[in-house]
């Protein structure tokens, strides 16, 4: 049994966890825990790029329009004011953004943006950022990384917080400051662009610890996830492809976005996804087409090399063939409620990145604002932590044993007899069918009833294992999303309820 006390514990090693760690005073001892390998998560999959607020007024307006004016204005201003510094830090840490022959940055455009303002590294911006940040973390003597270790609970105490994790064994670590940077909730849905380790753990753990969670009904569906029936993670066709001129066609080959919005294919994501969904119903289809065949082949291959190769490996030459796409779960606007310094309502517990609800995105995120939000608020948390005195609290062997005994006590008399894989599949199916792009109260109420029953049976069959916690986290997050959706009475941003027949909701 390890008993270790750190100055800071960071849960998650995507962009926000890594950037927090790298900006904390080198004299502080940091422990980073990650469910998979260092750098895993959605960040390394980001294609389009990162917003650079080179034109503050129009960026402010675009962010508000995309977010249906539900955004916290202070949060957007903070994001803008600190964007240049944070992006410069990324560059200092070794991130290489695309430049023209004269060395000027190249900017691209995505849905909802009125100007080209997105920095990118070809179509693999996330991979480049994570490469640079993980290289730096590996060099830092004050940062210890524990891979393949799932945090399962946080116990908040007066002076110090305890983090319980399962890797090769059950461990408890202590720190004055704990940063939750566990990413989104994608794997709560059957179809998602998020990787397998993204199951909403941080939000469920925070909720169990008594931390405020809000706006969970605002789930973003990306309009162009590559259509497939059996993949665990759907390939994303970046919005930047539409930014460079791709168009959407229904299965009859007709362009349709002009019927729904003046910005056509570059309308905000919620509008494009809802429009596609309506088109799918009208044409009785499961997918539409993304068409880039009118663009120059060399341009496509050079600008989107990864997307081009991925499609080619599936037998689709996008310079000649249409790609089948449909709206796919992609991002969560809600989550752990934080103030502008990343603080939650519990002392010493912070959150940043996709699991945090800072208020920047409102009811729907403007494309490419999330990587920026990740670094700006991670940096603010680091500043906050740097100003906190080193922890005086000492942990004795007796304290540790008492904490663990108490924690383990909850599990002593139980043995899980449930089929966890089956429960997980069932939940993902419910979320996909009834809690998707267009919802209705009847289906939501019925789904909540089923999910409450599943949650109860899991709680009656507690088990101290990684798999058990992943499933209870998925169930907890689903419940929070559905409750939020039932409670919200107006259609706003990514939250859309309509009285459709149930069979219309099945994709
Ligand atoms: C395919 C794709 C493309 C995208 N493209 C863009 C883009 O172009 N621009 C943009 O701005 N945004 C984009 N996004 C969104 C953006 O990438 C994410 O919102 C952002 O990267 C999230 O970063 P994060 O650090 O919060 O979480 P992540 O990068 O998801 O990292 C979460 C980390 O937490 C760990 N973790 C989770 N649970 C636990 C646990 N219980 N215990 C220990 N560790 C845990 C994970 O293993 C992982 O290391 C994209 C997202 C996807 C999926």
From TrEMBL:
Active site (record annotation): 269 (proton acceptor)
Domain of life: Bacteria
Pathway: Cofactor biosynthesis; NAD(+) biosynthesis; iminoaspartate from L-aspartate (oxidase route): step 1/1
InterPro entries linked: FAD-dep_OxRdtase_2_FAD-bd, FAD/NAD-bd_sf, Fum_R/Succ_DH_flav-like_C_sf, Fum_Rdtase/Succ_DH_flav-like_C, NadB, Succ_DH/fumarate_Rdtase_cat_sf
Cofactor section: FAD
Main location: cytoplasm
Ranges in a coiled coil: none
Domain Fumarate reductase/succinate dehydrogenase flavoprotein-like C-terminal: from-to ranges: 425-500
Gene Ontology, cellular component aspect: cytoplasm
Enzyme class: oxidoreductase
GO molecular function terms noted in the UniProt entry: L-aspartate oxidase activity; steroid dehydrogenase activity, acting on the CH-CH group of donors
Role played: Catalyzes the oxidation of L-aspartate to iminoaspartate.
PANTHER family linked: L-ASPARTATE OXIDASE, L-ASPARTATE OXIDASE, CHLOROPLASTIC
Family indicated by similarity: Belongs to the FAD-dependent oxidoreductase 2 family. NadB subfamily.
Protein name as it appears in the record: L-aspartate oxidase
Organism of provenance: Clostridium cylindrosporum DSM 605
Lineage: Bacteria, Bacillati, Bacillota, Clostridia, Eubacteriales
Originating gene: nadB
């Amino acid at each position: 049994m390890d008993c270790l006390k750190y100055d800071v514990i960071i849960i998650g090693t995507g962009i926000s966890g890594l950037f927090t760690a790298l900006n904390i005073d080198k004299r502080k001892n940091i422990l980073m825990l990650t469910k998979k390998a260092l750098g895993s998560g959605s960040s390394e999959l980001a294609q389009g790029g990162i917003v650079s607020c080179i034109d503050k007024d129009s960026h402010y307006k675009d962010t508000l329009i995309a977010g249906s004016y539900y955004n916290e204005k202070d949060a957007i201003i903070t994001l803008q004011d600190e964007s240049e510094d944070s992006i410069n830090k990324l560059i200092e840490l070794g991130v290489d953004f695309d430049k023209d022959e004269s060395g000027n940055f190249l900017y691209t455009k995505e849905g909802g943006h009125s100007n080209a303002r997105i920095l990118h590294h070809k179509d693999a911006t996330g991979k480049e950022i994570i490469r640079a940040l993980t290289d730096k973390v590996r060099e830092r003597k004050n940062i210890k990384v524990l891979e393949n270790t799932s945090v399962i609970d946080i116990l908040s105490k007066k002076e110090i917080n305890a983090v319980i994790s399962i890797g090769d064994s059950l461990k408890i670590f202590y720190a004055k400051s704990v940063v939750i940077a566990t990413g989104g909730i994608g794997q709560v849905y059957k179809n998602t662009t998020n990787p397998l380790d993204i199951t909403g753990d941080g939000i469920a753990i925070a909720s169990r610890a008594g931390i405020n969670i809000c706006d969970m009904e605002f789930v973003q569906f990306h309009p162009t996830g590559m259509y497939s029936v059996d993949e665990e993670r759907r390939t994303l066709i970046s919005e930047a492809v539409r930014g460079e001129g791709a168009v959407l066609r229904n299965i009859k080959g007709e362009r349709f976005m002009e019927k729904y919005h003046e910005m056509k294919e570059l309308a905000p994501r919620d509008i494009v996804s809802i429009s596609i969904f309506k088109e799918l119903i009208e044409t009785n289809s499961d997918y539409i087409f993304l068409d880039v065949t009118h663009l120059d082949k060399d341009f496509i291959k050079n600008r989107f090399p990864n997307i081009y190769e991925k499609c080619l490996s599936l037998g689709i030459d996008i310079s000649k063939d249409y790609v089948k796409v449909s709206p796919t779960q992609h991002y969560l606007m809600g989550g752990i409620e934080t103030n502008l310094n990343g603080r939650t309502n519990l002392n010493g517990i912070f959150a940043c990145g996709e699991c945090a609800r800072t208020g920047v995105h409102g009811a729907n995120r403007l494309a490419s604002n999330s990587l920026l939000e990740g670094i700006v608020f991670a940096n603010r948390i680091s500043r906050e932590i740097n100003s906190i005195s080193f922890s005086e609290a000492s942990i004795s062997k007796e304290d540790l044993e008492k904490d663990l005994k108490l924690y383990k006590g909850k599990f002593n008399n139980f043995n899980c007899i449930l089929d966890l894989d089956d429960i997980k599949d069932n939940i993902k199916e419910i979320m996909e069918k009834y809690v998707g792009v267009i919802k209705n109260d009847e289906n939501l109420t019925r789904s909540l009833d089923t999910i409450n029953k599943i949650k109860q049976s899991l709680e009656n069959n507690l088990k101290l294992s990684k798999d058990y916690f992943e499933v209870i986290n998925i169930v907890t997050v689903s419940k929070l999303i559905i409750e939020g959706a039932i409670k919200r009475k107006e259609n706003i941003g990514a939250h859309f309820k309509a009285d459709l027949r149930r069979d219309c909701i099945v994709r």
